[in-house]
Amino acid sequence: MPQDSKSRKLDQYIVRFPDGMRQKLKDIAAENGRSLNAEIIHRLEQSFNVATSIEDIDAANKRLQDMMDKADKRIAQLREQNTLALQVEMNRRSPEDSEK
What is the pTM of this model? Predict the structure, then answer.
């Protein structure tokens, strides 16, 4: 008598595994205390999370690069101000001060 469970009415898809993959998945599923189906579902869900994580990392990298660009510009401004202040100080000194 065929099973009439709720899960039997869910979407189904036939997958052709390369040689050895089915057994490898079964072994890992057993280690993790899951059925083969649950292991496959778990791994698919993880792959979606990885994609989201990569998008988050890319966005964070862009923000970090923007911050670094702003910091580089500010450092250049401060160097220029420092150079100008040093020039003003050198020009302010009299020739007698520089001989001492």
Answer: 0.49
